Amino acid sequence: MAAHDGSFQVFINFRGEDTRNNFTGFLHSALKRERIDAFMDSENLWGGEEIKTALLQAIQGSKISIPVFSKGYADSKWCLVELAEMVRCHKSNGQIILPIFFDVEITDVRHQSGSFKASFENHEKSNDAQTLKSWREALNLVTGISGHELKLVYGNQSKLVNKIVEWALTKLNSPCLPDVKNPIGLDAHVKKIEDLLNADSDDVEFVGIWGMSGIGKTAIAKAFFNSKLKEFPTNCFLENTREEASKGLVHLQKLLIQDITKNEVKYINNVDRGKAFIREKLRGEKVLLIIDDVDSHDQLDALAIEFKWFDRRSIIIITSQDEHILNLAKVDKAKRYRPKELDDKQSLQLFSLHAFSTNKPPEDYEQLCHEVLRLAGGLPLTLEVWGSYLYGTTEKQEWESMLRSLKNIPHKDIQKKLKISYDHLESDERSIFLDAVCFFIGWRKDTIISMWEACGFEAKAAIHKLTQRSLLKFTNKEYVAYKYTMGCNMELRKQSYEELRMHDQIQAMGRRIIIEESLGKLRNCSRLLSSDHIPEVFEEQMETPMIEGIFLPTNEFSRNVCLDREKVFAKMSELRFLCINGANSEVLPQLPYNLRWFSWTGCSLKILPTNFYHKKLVQMDLSGSQIKKAWTNKPRSERFLKLKVLILRDCKDLLESPDFSWFPYLEKVNLSNCQKMVSLHNSIGDLKFLVELYLDNTNIKELPESICRLNSLKRLNVAHLRQPLGKLPASIGDLKSLVDLDLSSAKLEEIPNNIWKLSSLERLYLDLSKSMKKLPESIDDLKSLVDLEVYGDCIEELPNSTCMLNSLKMLGIFSSSLKKLPDNLCNLNSLVSLVLRVKSHSLESLPKLPSTLTHLSIEARISFQKTDFSNLKKLRILKLGYCYDIEGLEEAENLEKFYLFNSKTDSLSKLPSNLTTLDVSTSISRLPDLSSLKKLRILKLCDCEINEIQGLEGTESLEEFRLSKCDSIRLPELPSTLTHIEVLNCKSLWKFPDLSGQKYLSTLKLQGSKELEKIQGLEGVESLTKFHVDHCNTVTDTRRKILGQGTLLVDELQRNDSLNVNDGIYKGLILCLVFAFPLESKKMLDYEGQPAIVNLNSEAIISSKHRRIECLFKLQIKDVKYTSKRDIIYIHHFDGFDWFGFPLKGKDANEKISFSAEGNIKIPCTNKSKNIDVSCEVKFWKLLLESTESKKQIPSPECSARMVADFFSWSFDNDGRSLFDTGEKVHIVSYPFSHGDGEYDNEESSFLLLFLLLLVLLLHLLLFFFW
């Protein structure tokens, strides 16, 4: 193996003779497949000092070290040398170690007993005591770190490898998907998909993968996704689309948006809004998007999957069982891939990996394996299920028994083949499997385990067996908690949980079993979730003694279900799970005795019966209900003896908390957002098993002293109360198990002395009143603290003891009076995020900062002239506000994002070359040359006083360029890589660079640049999808326009919604628009004739064969006289086919046009004018095409009056004369008319013209005669 540059992601330390050709070899290959740079084979390289140094550097440069302890591990001196170096790196720079105990006991490794004893006895003969001591200490330390034991996965090496890879991906923050397991033949599939792509194409690539369920479509798509990931900063793999869409299309949209933006989505409540949001986020982006398992065109429509929204280098892949879906998605037939079944060699390899954890079977099993392969037909899912079922089975008789069963099943009946594994389950295991099939896919593992255990099942053992047989699987779902601070998302922590998943064929098999067991009769059905069956059971009061679960679909259907009979569930004696969310009822239904889980969100009852209890219920969710009162009386003998979870979140009418004596075994209570609840019952302190308590956004005035008796409590949230809490119970420090304490907005007058006894506390958010100026020195007693936020306007300093919090990773101080930070702040060796917000001038300088910082956000009036950034090698995000004298930034060599706002600095020095985002919002007069910023993707400048931007054309990766309120700026030539340009309120900007070379530009927004001239080169921007112009008067104005007053002759708004342009026949466009000022009050009559300004809003879609552009324009119509008595007409002659600055050409179609208006009257006063906003209504508009016969450049009033005569009558002045004098005619042809083929009947036009001339001549003769 060649020498590496010393930087690896993972270093594997192992004894080659023991594990090279099995476990470690599998692990190394799996890590490589996930694009993880892993170092292996070190043992073969030990020798000379040069190689020794290189290997130690490899350990030092790695982020993760994985020692694999085997029986012969300690025989190798080099394994122990490497281990000692890993431990040194672990102590010095926090390198992560994951120990793997392959075939040894942890105690043997820790105490050097067993096989390790003899090895160390040999080492004692040739090594000094100090070396031996360092090895023993290393072994002792590493065995104290949480790792993995092969015996805990029952010797299944493949499963252990997958666990390690998933863990490594999480730690390395790799966006690769971790679930491509045993990728037999995947490379060939990926190659075939790549062959479908046109490498030279600049178009969006739409590819479809289709085929039967279980063939491996998802695995192929994941493998392709991972292979292309690094080429696409914007990417998303939307898994289980069919299943997720069953929860609602809005839910599906949120999943896509969250995956793209990495932020939680809250404000999407309908499909149309979701589509608009998706278009906004993906428009013009170079996207790698895979939508897995689509079964309806509605799903694609909801996700706004249309080629025109994406950058032309994007790749979109859709997987489906149904080729018709690809037809609906308009995927070219040449871009479709149908995977074939595995061949015999691949089938044997896949089956062997699951059955034997090796690439091939033992010799004496080869014949049996080939029999299995013949029956499996090359289907990967079947091979996986059968192999998992037979794993660990050493009796050939069991193999032969299974083969006999399989031979009786038709070849194409996949579900019956899969059912073989189900048939050999125990009764409880079958119940758990069928529950999962019907109800719990997508649920958290810990939640469903607690429910199944409450049913009396050995849930963990059953889940292990079901997972081992590939009937269930759990995927690791990771989410990132963010703090939004000073306009910037600061990453708090990553958390993960396991989520239940299941292959659709397995799920279909399970549902088929339920139908077969019911013999086709609804009364015998064990589980109900169909919206067709549930009403039938309720309405007919059907006896269903076998039913174990009912889940009412959460949609309009549930709101129409009425449960007004108290005993509607009385005959369901076996019912364990009941979800009736949204159902209506005036009574509380009697719950069956065996019920374990009950959910009725949106419960319509206002008061619960005083005697409502249930002996076996484990979880109850009544969130969002209308309940005002519940369990407020003292219980007698009846109680909820099994209830662990009580959720009353968002019960906004709830006046007081329940008496918790009803629920002695609660582990979680959620009363969040119960806004009228003023007190917490004193019995809360009796809940000795309580782990989580949520009281945020309630109206409670104080916490009862009894809360301090909650010895098991880990999480307490009393944030954002409707009124300040003021004080904490004196014995708060007795909560020894507390991990999270959120006191945001509490305004504490004092902190109890014993709060520092919270030895397990990891997250503490404090909000202090004005009477508190300093935190106590005893804060260093919180040894486990990871995240500390302190809010307090009068906090003047942090105690020096803060710097002894060795576990602290995030520190936030928000104060108006902070004067000083501890001098030894740099001693916080674990700190990665520091946020300071100091509103006054009290903080004069910063001490030396910890070198471990990755996020630094400072809003304080301090100088950075003496700040040493060279120490901050790991700093990635820097945000500075109100600072000055900013120097030395180039020393922060790994800085990726820099935000500067409201700072008193004239210029910036050289910037670090790794910068990807530069956001400056301050009155800076000079920027450094940007040509060295080759990685810069986003440049935002606001309120800057700079005249020019040097080196902008030299940036090679710039995609977003945003300018705002930069009045003095002159724009240079722009780089051709841009996708988004935004220029807002740059009032002196008059010239825009030619855009004809912008081949990737998708969005152009211009606002408030009143001097800006017409944009050149727009017709050459082929990727443009959005063009917005707002109050750029020179761009949207025209010399040829007319204003007048009169009366609209039609009763309702008439318009032509679309217009096709053919510039070979007509010379230009004319807009005729009629609006009015409705009389809102009689007082407005006083303003008749006053000058007014009308702001006109126009929206249009401009489309042609190859593009579709959303155009939004806002322009001002001046010189309007306010009147509520007459209508006002505005005639706008465009400059040819220049649609408010956008050049239309050829067959461009202007579609879906709309107009709206806002009015503003300027009223003269004694000292100054004042503006009054008034309503303005667009009553009518019409687009006309101007004939090429006209040679007139300025429109005459008379011809304008004639061309609108069919819908508008002009007013006359006081002398009774027309407002317009006679003028030369302009020939106007009114739209619509037939011109789809680009031709027009000129003879008809000439005839009409001749007729009109003769008519005018006749009128002149008559007038002459009468005179």
TrEMBL record:
Q: Which residues form the TIR domain?
A: 6-172
Write out the GO biological process terms. defense response; signal transduction
Q: Recorded E.C. number(s)?
A: 3.2.2.6
Q: Which reaction does it catalyse?
A: NAD(+) + H2O = ADP-D-ribose + nicotinamide + H(+)
Concerning SMART domains, the annotation shows: LRR_TYP, TIR
List where the protein spans the membrane.
Answer: 1247-1266
Q: Name one GO molecular function term.
A: ADP binding
Q: Which Pfam families match?
A: NB-ARC (PF00931), TIR (PF01582)
Keywords in alphabetical order, please.
Answer: Leucine-rich repeat, Membrane, NAD, Repeat, Transmembrane, Transmembrane helix
Task: Identify this protein by name.
Answer: ADP-ribosyl cyclase/cyclic ADP-ribose hydrolase
Q: Which organism is it from?
A: Protea cynaroides
